Batch of 2 targets.
Target 1
Amino acid sequence: MGAGGRMQVSPPSSSPETKTLKRVPCETPPFTLGDLKKAIPPHCFKRSIPRSFSYLLFDILVSSSLYHLSTAYFPLLPHPLPYLAWPLYWACQGCVLTGLWVIAHECGHHAFSDHQWLDDAVGLVFHSFLLVPYFSWKYSHRRHHSNTGSLERDEVFVPKKKSDIKWYGKYLNNPLGRTVMLTVQFTLGWPLYLAFNVSGRPYSDGFACHFHPNAPIYNDRERLQIYISDAGVLSVCYGLYRYAGSRGVASMVCVYGVPLMIVNCFLVLITYLQHTHPSLPHYILRSGIG
Ligand SMILES: [Zn+2]
């Protein structure tokens, strides 16, 4: 089979309950990646600095206006209007900051401009602002894109084999258990993945932490940039510490913490939906067969 002997994991054809699994494509598609690229209009591949910056500046403008609105006018609102205004602010700011998060993600894919240094500078600033270690995640995320669906090499949302499911798994397979799991996943899933590789690819040769320059996720060429990513996140943490010191922890949580949780929830939700539908194909590499 093309792409170096990939072996598709076929759904069990005898299992009656698996109408969904029957939709899993097990054959090589009748088109190539090149065909797909040709079907996309060429202008979509052009990277324009003015256009990219216009998206970035628009998001910064809206986000700053929301911040100004919340800090300058919410304290003037009569009781109980702040209880309505703050959730509205969190929802709006969470959406806008998700847009900013996505722009930084595009920088990691070198899609912001034709200049790698500019993409990395913009990505580093804005991912750091959202407490994402820019280079660290850029590298693991790139590997995720080139190994999507691989049971051995994909970086995230790697499905467990039945034999690897823990004994308590059966107690979580009900509406209440799933609600608890999804709540934890949407609130803590992203930081837990970055820090402890939760739901990530198993690495046997060391602690797979995105903040650790010697983590097995990275090669020697990449390690220096992991320090830079950590410095970016630490600088923002220090800024937040100073902000909390001058305006109070509650203010910091309200203007930044809750919207950031919404951003994290969005990105876990988006990737969760993209990567865990039962009809998505997964494959293993057939060793020794070219
Ligand atoms: Zn991506």
Target 2
Amino acid sequence: MKVLLIGGCGFIGSHVADCLVEHGIAVRIFDRRLEPFRDPLPRVEYVMGDLTDTAQVFEAMSGVDAVIHLASTTVPSTSNLDPVADIKGNLISAVRLLEMMRATDIRKIVYLSSGGTVYGIPTTDPVAEAHPLNPISSYGIVKVAIENYMQMENHLHGLQPIVLRASNPYGPRQGHGGIQGIIGTHLWRTARGEGVEIWGDGSIVRDFIYVRDLADLCVAALTTDTSGCYNAGSGAGASINDIVDRIRAVTADEPGINFDPVYKPGRSFDVPRVVLDISKARRDFRWAPKVDLKEGIERTWEWVKQTSRAD
Ligand SMILES: NC(=O)c1ccc[n+]([C@@H]2O[C@H](COP(=O)([O-])OP(=O)(O)OC[C@H]3O[C@@H](n4cnc5c(N)ncnc54)[C@H](O)[C@@H]3O)[C@@H](O)[C@H]2O)c1
């Protein structure tokens, strides 16, 4: 099997690439840049291009059996600043990709949607896949629209899409721009001796998944003969204050490190609690998250320390 891994040089994509290689699956990465934190992988083919360029994508699809789509030009907190750019960069390119898959008879796609945004403000706890979709950000609205186009292609043309609604992934190789990924951002800022800010009182609860567990799920989904939407989280909730306590514990013995977050007013788009029900993915893919928050934060801290020293 050969897979086109779109966005394979990103945070999640880099781990999916590792996992595919370990499974002996041939990988062609399509991305507009190389990985920022490590050299290209020896057994992986790299095609540099832009998903909005139909000709480049079409060429990159030659000879592949399946697609994993992990490219996104937006994150929840910035998508509302320019919804038109969000639609152009993400929705239109995804719809074109589906058309090209139909034309080239590639049937299988794994797509990373967002369990933190497609449900809006959840009315159940945990949130199962059947929960109504009421996104309150452009990012979530575009994710739902892409999911719907995939369903349409499934009904009309027999596409086999697997949508994974990811919760909050964290782990090595997460960028540290500070706009997404509280664990990575806080660890990076702490390693550099920079202050850490918390929006709100730290009581909001999220479902954090170690990135390698999410990558394993992507590959399990790819190699299973099914289609549909699946929550992709740890199934457990942790508050921001829980994360703060764990980061304090993991950094406590580091000389010169002072982890002392400053609390700022909450943000209107942060929903109070989102924890995903992952029983469907556990059942259909015989998959389960393996790395708990304590171990995951320790591994991430080790990576951040090494990488920030080399910077
Ligand atoms: N990280 C999260 O917290 C999170 C949570 C839920 C869902 N997701 C989804 O998972 C997917 C991967 O996220 P990530 O955190 O790895 O993001 P990332 O930004 O680290 O990686 C995305 C990759 O896609 C590439 N890319 C973006 N636009 C492109 C384009 N037009 N053409 C070619 N390449 C392009 C980027 O260069 C980057 O390497 C995205 O769809 C994202 O929406 C992420």
